[in-house]
Design a protein that fits this description.
elongated; single chain; mainly alpha; 0% strand; 83% helix
């Protein structure tokens, strides 16, 4: 079935949908981790194990939420589209390529939707694990994770710029501005210790 995946994506015109899910949920994962880590950074002396467990818990929750919500919504939408097409053509399309795409694409979209925030969140918390395992880092683990989140947000913006055909640097800086505004809001609204 994997060899048929590009064709099925083409049949359902789902490449753009998968890309949007990846970007939107990847951005959510990166910004969520940035917010969580910034909150811990402002809390000062928080045990690194607590930070790792909280971040990992959020990463898993984002992944599970992404997979389940996308599967439920996409499978309902694809079944509806198939039913409407079958009614218009007065034929059963269940075993056609279109019917197969209707059954398989919700799984693919759900995986993209869930894996994007999970994998990006895990990438961002790697410096925390390294710090916990006493690996020497050039900066503190929380700051390294914040930096990793900012770089990831910027790269997502660059990707969007490339997809849309706009200037990639401005697209990256725009997403970075959202990240900076998020950090600023957290800093302004956080109670002082």
């Amino acid at each position: 079935m994997l060899y048929k995946l590009p064709a099925l994506l083409g049949i359902m015109r789902s490449r753009g949908i998968a890309r949007r899910y990846f970007v939107v949920n990847g951005f959510d994962g990166a910004l969520t981790m940035l917010g969580l880590i910034t909150g811990f950074q402002l809390s000062q002396s928080v045990d690194l194990v607590v930070v790792i467990n909280a971040c990992l818990g959020v990463a898993i929750a984002l992944g599970m939420s992404g997979v389940s919500s996308a599967y439920i919504s996409e499978s309902a939408e694809k079944r509806k589209e198939l039913r409407e097409l079958e009614q218009a053509m007065i034929t059963d399309l269940g075993e056609s390529d279109y019917g197969q795409a209707t059954r398989w694409l919700p799984f693919v979209i759900a995986l993209v939707n869930g894996l994007a925030p999970f994998l990006i969140a895990v990438l961002i918390i790697i410096p925390l694990w390294l710090g916990h395992w006493s690996v020497a880092l050039p900066i503190a683990p929380l700051a390294a994770s914040q930096l990793m989140a900012l770089v990831t947000v910027f790269l997502i913006g660059v990707f969007l710029g490339r997809v849309s055909g706009t200037m990639w640097i401005w697209a990256g800086l725009r997403t970075l501005a959202v990240a900076a505004a998020t950090m600023l809001l957290i800093a302004l609204l956080s109670p002082r210790i």
